Amino acid sequence: MTLPACPQCQSIYTYEDGSQFVCPECAHEWSATDAVTADEVKCITDANGNRLSDGDSVTVIKDLKVKGSSLVVKVGTKVKNIRLLTDASDGHDIDCKIDGIGAMKLKSEFVKKA
Hints:
Layout: E1 15-17, E2 20-22, E3 29-31, E4 58-60, E5 64-65, E6 72-73, E7 78-79, E8 83-84, E9 94-98, E10 102-106, E11 111-113
């Protein structure tokens, strides 16, 4: 049986760990059910049209009020290691953790790729 190449870095040195596949070069883990073609993946872009992917760093381009709080995410705030949400029905398609605020979801239209 031939193991699939890593969908993130295209490395051929993947190995099987239980029901997961693991890439030793980029540490990406995925299951056999997660293996989808590039046509099936929803493309999420930033405010400038650049394609975003999991693990990217982005910068906020507009002051954003945090709902239910008096906190504000200021323009220029850098957010590291984002995670994309493909099933976001409310438009918030980025899951992240912002220093000083905590975990929250952002809309990709209010960020640019750093």
